[in-house]
Putative HTH-type trans
Amino acid sequence: MQASPGAYRQTEDYLDKFEAAVRKHPEIRECYLMTGGSDYMLRVDVENAGAFERIHKEVLSTLPGVLRIHSSFSIRDVLAARSKQKR
């Protein structure tokens, strides 16, 4: 599942607090600072919809500076990651 939280404060202090909080939650497997409409993209491993709801309520919505969260999940793999081709 991917979650893209939008921060309401863009100061260095708030971004540092957000990133420090993300590192404390093992449910959050990956975190990327993004360009465009979302400030960050998180990869969260969940077993089912109930687990997602718990993580959304107890973890994602409590991260410092978060105003909104856009989330999505894959239905199935069409093309999994592949290694880079050598030129």
